[in-house]
Fold this sequence. Notes:
Largest interface: D-F, 47 and 48 residues
Helix content of chain A: 40-55%
Oligomer: homohexamer
Strand content of chain A: 5-15%
Strand order of the largest sheet of chain A: 3-2-1-4-7-10-11
Amino acid sequence: MSVEEVKQVAERISSMEIRGAGKIARSAAGALKSYAVASKETTGAKYLEGLSKAGEILICARPSAVSLPNAVRYILYRVEGSGDRKASALRKATINAAEDFIENSVKAVERIGILGSKRIEEGDTIMTHCNSSAALSVIKTAWRDGKEIKVIASEARPRYQGQITVRELAKEGIPTSLIVDSSVRAVMKGVDKVVVGADSIAANGAVINKIGTSQIALCAQEARVLFFVAAETYKFHPETCLGEIVEIEKRDSSEVASPEEFPGVDILNLAFDVTPPEYIDLIVTEKGIVPPQAAIMVIKEEFGWAVGGKW
Amino acid sequence: MSVEEVKQVAERISSMEIRGAGKIARSAAGALKSYAVASKETTGAKYLEGLSKAGEILICARPSAVSLPNAVRYILYRVEGSGDRKASALRKATINAAEDFIENSVKAVERIGILGSKRIEEGDTIMTHCNSSAALSVIKTAWRDGKEIKVIASEARPRYQGQITVRELAKEGIPTSLIVDSSVRAVMKGVDKVVVGADSIAANGAVINKIGTSQIALCAQEARVLFFVAAETYKFHPETCLGEIVEIEKRDSSEVASPEEFPGVDILNLAFDVTPPEYIDLIVTEKGIVPPQAAIMVIKEEFGWAVGGKW
Amino acid sequence: MSVEEVKQVAERISSMEIRGAGKIARSAAGALKSYAVASKETTGAKYLEGLSKAGEILICARPSAVSLPNAVRYILYRVEGSGDRKASALRKATINAAEDFIENSVKAVERIGILGSKRIEEGDTIMTHCNSSAALSVIKTAWRDGKEIKVIASEARPRYQGQITVRELAKEGIPTSLIVDSSVRAVMKGVDKVVVGADSIAANGAVINKIGTSQIALCAQEARVLFFVAAETYKFHPETCLGEIVEIEKRDSSEVASPEEFPGVDILNLAFDVTPPEYIDLIVTEKGIVPPQAAIMVIKEEFGWAVGGKW
Amino acid sequence: MSVEEVKQVAERISSMEIRGAGKIARSAAGALKSYAVASKETTGAKYLEGLSKAGEILICARPSAVSLPNAVRYILYRVEGSGDRKASALRKATINAAEDFIENSVKAVERIGILGSKRIEEGDTIMTHCNSSAALSVIKTAWRDGKEIKVIASEARPRYQGQITVRELAKEGIPTSLIVDSSVRAVMKGVDKVVVGADSIAANGAVINKIGTSQIALCAQEARVLFFVAAETYKFHPETCLGEIVEIEKRDSSEVASPEEFPGVDILNLAFDVTPPEYIDLIVTEKGIVPPQAAIMVIKEEFGWAVGGKW
Amino acid sequence: MSVEEVKQVAERISSMEIRGAGKIARSAAGALKSYAVASKETTGAKYLEGLSKAGEILICARPSAVSLPNAVRYILYRVEGSGDRKASALRKATINAAEDFIENSVKAVERIGILGSKRIEEGDTIMTHCNSSAALSVIKTAWRDGKEIKVIASEARPRYQGQITVRELAKEGIPTSLIVDSSVRAVMKGVDKVVVGADSIAANGAVINKIGTSQIALCAQEARVLFFVAAETYKFHPETCLGEIVEIEKRDSSEVASPEEFPGVDILNLAFDVTPPEYIDLIVTEKGIVPPQAAIMVIKEEFGWAVGGKW
Amino acid sequence: MSVEEVKQVAERISSMEIRGAGKIARSAAGALKSYAVASKETTGAKYLEGLSKAGEILICARPSAVSLPNAVRYILYRVEGSGDRKASALRKATINAAEDFIENSVKAVERIGILGSKRIEEGDTIMTHCNSSAALSVIKTAWRDGKEIKVIASEARPRYQGQITVRELAKEGIPTSLIVDSSVRAVMKGVDKVVVGADSIAANGAVINKIGTSQIALCAQEARVLFFVAAETYKFHPETCLGEIVEIEKRDSSEVASPEEFPGVDILNLAFDVTPPEYIDLIVTEKGIVPPQAAIMVIKEEFGWAVGGKW
């Protein structure tokens, strides 16, 4: 794949033809692999220059999707760290890293389910919020392993993704309750564990996720209920080490209520909130279960971007 | 009004012809006043016996409405406490107490607005929940007094009473934002005060109110935001001194989502929750502003039902 | 009963012939009643002087037993507050107050059981500590009312009063577990309510009780488990309003371990500790259920000793 | 004393000829007493009208001094509550109440010392802030009773009242340390009790005192150190029940630093702050030691101004 | 040592002939060293296969003892990480790693004493629980260094290991107090530091130790007392990164009380509890002092098992 | 530079001719670089021995300045970790590491400003304490980037370094308020972020800084205000991993008040306090923004001194 071809993948990402955090990341990894296969560069230095440029093109296609720059960084970090500086060795390292990334990404949700479900106990009542495939993988794996569990799902206004969740769980046969978001604290005493997903995770372990997550975490902490986050490692956000703030998206008011019906009212529709690390007990990744304070270590191991690195 | 007539009022309360906490209470007070006017008893003892019986009939009409037994207790307590034991004097005491109760009840919301608004400061952003006339009286009085305030109202799923609130406030011209219930913690840092109503208030200062209130109180405490409850004194619940637990009503599932569309899912619809007194800064009543720990004192002064009383 | 006879009762209290908080208090009340019956004083002033002196004699018999001065204070407060100042009226008031006190004291444990058990719910797991008849009355009444409950009792080293408790509960047929005192926090998550007794209660609502109580209260608060204290009103300690500190008794080391076997080791045996009011949800008395902050109000109503009183 | 003479006292208060919380209050009480002595009214109603007017004149002389309206309220409340409605009886009641108030006020600091020092234990290290005669009375009484104590005083920038305090304590021979205000948390672990005064106390138990007090209270709570407030009952603020907010005085910048030397800098000089009741263990008044939650009860007993009163 | 001989060591571990966390671990390390010495394999791959199999045999001998798999992992991790892939080099690496492990293990308790005692200050009162040689090494080293300290030891019901502790400390001449487990909170204000051992430590820094430890940690945190854990690095539990939950052993009821004497009573005897990392200030290992959040880093450095590793 | 010349640099450090944390550190790094340039050793082993000795000489010049041993450790760690063991290669490695250290140190404050200012938002009110060039770099960079911010600076008794801060900020045109240290809690509600410097940072993330810092951190946490520390990586304190306690300097009493004017008073002048990691949100270093729990990782990366290292 020439640089032109990398650009085409970038365009398909940019145009939303390729979408979903996992798919975007794997496409980018695949593009870098193809680049390596096709590359004709004879010196290591030139090869690295070209690979780096290809990575930049891909990242610029949709910089806000944390999984995309992470896929690129994952590969570049491993290529740069491989010992042999010859072009052929670097090409090989690129291909290996890209294949590793893709395989890991494909199996991540399943793997998170396997690891996380070990923390679910017979008889647990689990609360979840919104609709996260990683969180549901934990819950379903526990159920399929024969653990008698119950689930309470909040509806997740304004878009009611909780309704998708309860349908999905009821189809599995799991006893499931649906509540309005305001009921969280009232039912928390009967809950054993909270399991939610993550949109992205900052270097200090703070979790950005669907609006309402931080409120559930606060209620869980007050009631001494364990709070688990299930998230692929490519959700960890390296730039936060460098001071970048994760912007909270404001979405269209009409998702909450029709503005015409409420003249003079500002209808505020925040899509996400930030849960501080002190409210999180564990983060279940496909590579192991870590406390939120180890987020910076995950970022360093996966993407090589941390204290003491070059800028 | 004979006992028969008292029974008619009781029936109109029981049949929901008379409804609303304030109206029910005032009807009961009015019935006891009419009873006093019409009574022909010549001894104090007989008069008291009849009055007590009339009170019982009224209370039984709808015992779950805390304002109804409170109206009866308010009057009986004052009649029993009046010095003169002659029938005529007791009749007079009954009429005075009933008139006091009615007048106070009619003016309570206005009075709460006057007292509570003194605690609202120029520039405050106030959060409210559900649709409480006492809470809104505080907010509107502050606005009418010329204080530049803003309001954030949560929608209060499942019945969206928050939408009624924002319409009411926007009509006054108050800058008002509407949010989903899950946004509470995310916007709390910009809030100066929370003002909510109460369904009833227990002897230990715990406040029973619309589902979601306790969650907002928890978020307010975490952020060191003042949390005010606005409530008429007839909302205070004397029986809680005697061990009664305030039951939390579960309402119909279909208010949350259509059960047919969610086979196998238990849709849980709690109507109220309990906010513990340590999360409440002040309770604004029409008779003064008190900390929640003084709830038992309010009950004693208003209804004479407290430690050391007879059973 | 002449003053001489009052002195005899005082001696029987002092010599421990009469013992137990309830019995001591009732004997003192009975002695004052007999004094009133026998008194020949013709002026109110003289009668009061004599009564006051009789009270002092009784209190001095064992001033550390909070129930004894409380019995005396209960009666004197009511006699002084009665309107008529004639000797005959004061005698009558004395007799009435003494009889009220005795009757109330006899029925207090039963009454506490009735009020407190309303707060116990079907399916509750209740933790208790040491061996308190008031606390056990709450538990047994709930059980006899048909509520399916379980009890976890800590053994209460060094004197193992918890073993008396579990035998007593097992005899009733209540499912009961016995744990070592160190297991409290480990099992707290499965507990719904803690119910303990009290040795005495200070004016600020702090509860003095068997060593270990404050630790259980802290664990309960951490786990958001309700913490109830069951105590007769004569356990409330009026002097604490005047700055007196409740002394914590240190008991003999040999209750913990034989000092000879531990040369050079200071074996510390504290009998009681102080649970601060912020860890207590409710105090169940025979006259109603109050929050700990209302302790000063209980003291004022029962013993007339409070802010604004004379010294 | 005619109304004219009352006006003269009011003027001396207004012109600051009479100053200091205690002196102002006692002058007002004395003026009302003289008014009663001089009054020629023959009907109770007319007398009360005149007395009430005299009270208003005095209050208006300096309404911000909480002790002044409290002195007037203390007397009016007792006069209105006395049974006999004849002018002569009301005059007598006025004189009695005024004398009680004055005597109590004169002895209050000594009395606070006696009650509060009972809570100071041998070997205690006590922190104090600013220069409060009530707080120092507690400390000095404990010392004079032979308790070996140490004191740490913060300097209380910007006016260094802590320096007055340490001189006063060192003169008594009490081992005393002086620290800068920033050292409070660093030394708190070695402190056993904090004792401070109060400028005024709100109905919910919040204490308004010298800037820095709330910060010390927060540090004390973090370290589980007892926090005592020593204050005369006339410091309790009845209007706070009615929604009044205690205004925090901003004082002249030059007390902190010379504004000319800091062009462009806003030098903010807050004189007081508010300590929330949850950080206060006990309030020592001359009439007893109460928890902060009982503040509203103190106000009711002393000034008759509370829930259920008339407006 | 042939594989047969490794099996013999495994059997001696399995049969409890070899016991104690340290001894088991060192025996396993010794067996792997002997295996390396005796091995005749000529290719690196074959050697590694055999070594890995030998490791598995050892681990299976008693998988619940965390020190055993850690010893094996420690060696395998270093062998695999050594550069040279020849059989002879790998044998050398095995021998080195085994000797390092053994030497470190033997000196660990002494080393922990040296590091930990630096944090003990002249005049400290130290609380300890149960009987941990690592914790006591810290205390004794401080004492031998001439620091005047005092120790308070809880008795650790049901097996009274605290009595062993106080005897051991009193023999050293250290002023030592023995208390019942319920006294912990009552005496905590006079404590400067808590030092306890650990049975094992999870990847998130949670410490599994003798029942009662978590309760002491909670009391320490409430009183702002430092809480130290002293533990050898082989106590850190790598599998917890992969979702394994540390099981809490339930021991025989008769240790608490004779079941025959308590018919109908369930005597619950939990051996251990879990102290959450937020209650722990520092963990003293023989390789340095780390905060609990660094537990995952210790696991990674010692056993190579962490985020990003292969599975 | 011969060893003699290294000694001369050491002497200039020791005599305070060279002073300031940054300058001392850079002089030491420069001395080691010169040593490498001048060294004539032909074997790697001898060279390392000499370099190590030179390092020791420098460290001994002023061991309490954390930046000095850190400079030495930074270089030695990199030299020892470089692959090639020949003298010439080690010399080259020494020169590179020294140059890296110096360059990084020179640019650190600017770099901290760039990274930290990304976390400052338009409209923020920022509190700072004392006078830290790293903290002010964050504030000034945000201002120069065009963000409308306000600053509140505490005066930092006893030496009023806060006055230097406000002058510096006012000169930039930044709206700046000066407060006394006791005002911190009173104004905290209007603060968005606190930014302070650090004297040194322990392995567990605790920050040693100017007296008053921990108190501000506590107030910030109570009010949910973000608390940032700005510090160069050479402020991190490796020895704390080995149990060393950071000593808190007591400075001369006369800085607080003239001792002659306060006979009998102990004027205590602590220069620094310790802020626990749980009160700190982020530490901004020139190499990235890290949570305080990652301090041990910074120490390991920068100075190679951590768990598992040799001793």
